Amino acid sequence: MRRILPVLAGASMLAALLVAGPQSSATPVPTPEVTLPPIPAISGLPIPSLPTDLLVPKFTGAPAAKQPIAHPPIPQNPWLSPDGTNTMHNDSYASDAYQVSGPLGQSLKVKSASYGVRECATIAFDSHNRIVGLCGGLEGFGMMVIDPVTLKPISELRTSARNLATGTNPLTDICGGTYFFLDADDVAYPTTGQKTIQKIQVQADGKLVRQHEWSLAANVAADDCLIATMPDYDGRIWFFTQQGTVGTLDRDTGAIKTYELPDGEEVTNSVATDETGGMYVVSTHALYRLDATADGVPEVTWRETYDRGSRLKTGNLSQGSGTTPTLLGDRWVAINDNADPKTNVLVYDRREGVTDRLHCTQPVLADNAGTTDNSLVAAGNSFIIENNYGYGGPTTTILGKTTTPGLARVMVEDDGCHVAWTSNEIAPSSVAKASLGNGLLYAYTKPKLTNPLSNALDAWYFTAIDIRTGKTVWSRLMGTGIQWNNHYAAIYLGPDGAAYIATLAGLIRITDG
Fold it and tell me: Are 50 and 481 a contacting pair, CB within 8 Å?
């Protein structure tokens, strides 16, 4: 027990913190001979389990049979590693869907590893199928290369310090450490809290080497920060700041070109891009398609405002859509709004020449208790939304508390949209993922337990939902306690179909037996 106390204490400290509260060229930043040391991982230790695991069901339901779902093709962005391995949302379309078949629930094997008080919210997979993670803790962010089977760290590199002097809550701070992308040459491109984009090579032996760093400080306001980065299909690196600066970086010349969204519009999520040159981003007021001119200047191709509501809902990081735009086929792009009494899934026609872009406004989730701060999942001819209403951080899901139920599938037809099903599963903050290879939607759930012996316990489950029917197929306990909270991190499927979930204390791997 002594060996796990630091992890538990650290997780408690995280929870306590939540309660408390012009055009230019990029200047290359030389890599110093002496860099910040990595935050040492706790090699070999699992995420600590508790005796209370014995008081809740370990597995419910039954194994599934594969029922693959056909999905419109997603063109491979040549500047990203293969789809399913390159970003938090799987591909340039931000589909959150995998072609590979994930766990079916057959004699599930669960393995975990603790990395201290760090969460690897975004992970990718290199050409050797190793995990490449961007992991954040109280002190800042770092890249990690992790063995995909043992979950032991292979190498680490500190990328960005966190400025705690600003009073920013580390649990809601997404500046310079949430998103990155991996290219086909095993090179990662994370943003930093120091307003830079780094180029980090994952070598054949798994070591991380910082090759280059571009400073964007001259193009980003002193009180602003980098949120997201993504390459378009021509290889430009686009970047987006919280206060609405949109920029492109030519990594050969270092040239930076920027555009400013209207005053008051913020960006708090990632972005999507397609093969026609469009870059799609949602601000707290509108959905945008931007394109770059021949010399790289970002321009607004179209802008669609939406109902951003009258309040910041518990479960959102900003007053507005909580989604990364999700693309489907060669026609659709979808987000959610922030309307009341019901939030809506909004589906737009992104084709060139369309004058009436809003295809449908589909109400979903509970009245006055529905929102999401996670990307919609594209599966077949549908978008799936997860309800995060009521999640305000780790303290809102302790002592048996949980959030508002609800996942819903919205079908898109030529003449409109309709809700195919609504699930009562409760997924406080996970980025759900679809396995097109087997027809299952994976969510990270925390049910409201009714057994008098367990209703004050905090049990976290890896849950599989039938995409076609919305019925829960099975749920497997990961553990009880705050250390199993995944706090807005995504679910991932590796190239071999293994599932991974990051938590406040480490990483979980789930496979069929």
Answer: yes
CA distance 5 to 483: 11
Asked if the model's pLDDT at residue 22 lies above 90, the reply is no
Q: Which residues contact 30 (CB under 8 A, 6 or more apart)?
A: 213
Distances (CA, A) of 14 to 18, 181, 318: 7, 27, 21
Q: Is the pLDDT of residue 2 over 70?
A: no
Nearest to 226 by CA among 270, 285, 166: 270
- Which amino acid belongs to residue 44? G
pLDDT digits (tens, 9 = 90+) for 60-80: 999 999 999 999 999 999 999
Q: Across 400-439, where does the E strand assignment appear? A: 407-413, 416-423, 433-435
**How many angstroms separate the CA atoms of 304 and 286, rounded?**
5
Gap between the Cα atoms of 317 and 436, Å rounded: 30
- The torsion angles phi and psi of 476, rounded to 5 degrees, stand at -120, 125
Cα–chain center distance at 211: 26
- Report helix, strand and coil shares of the chain as percent, to nearest 5: 5, 40, 55
Element (H, E) at 15: helix 5-19
Within 10 angstroms of residue 38's Cβ, the number of other Cβ atoms is 17
- Is 30's pLDDT higher than 70? no
Sign of the torsion formed by the C-alpha atoms of 249, 200, 225 and 302: positive
What secondary structure letter does DSSP report for 43? T
* Helix (H) / strand (E) containing 13: helix 5-19
Please list the alpha-helical segments (H only) found in 293-340: none
- Structural contact between residues 490 and 508, judged by C-beta atoms closer than 8 angstroms: no
Contacts with 327 (C-beta within 8 Å, 6 or more apart), sequence order: 74, 93, 94, 95, 272, 274, 280, 333, 350, 378
Range of the domain at 172: 2-511
Write out pLDDT tens, residues 279-306: 999 999 999 999 999 999 999 999 999 9
The distance of Cα 28 from the centroid of its chain, to the nearest Å, equals 29
Report the number of distinct structural domains present in the chain.
Answer: 1
Q: Which H/E stretch holds residue 17?
A: helix 5-19
Residues 6+ apart with CB under 8 A from 179: 87, 88, 122, 134, 190, 191, 227, 228, 229, 270
What is residue 19's three-state secondary structure?
Answer: helix
Separation of alpha carbons 226 and 204, rounded Å? 30
Give the CATH number of the domain where residue 58 resides.
2.130.10.10
Instruction: Name residue 148's amino acid.
Output: P
Q: Judge whether residue 247 has pLDDT over 60.
A: yes
57, burial (CB in 10 Å: exposed 0-12, middle 13-18, buried 19+): middle
Tokens, residue 58 = 């370990």
Helix (H) or strand (E) holding 356, with range, is none
Q: How far is CA 15 from CA 66, 178, 455, in A?
A: 39, 19, 20
Do residues 196 and 29 touch, judged by C-beta distance below 8 A? yes
Q: What is the mean pLDDT of residues 184-206?
A: 96
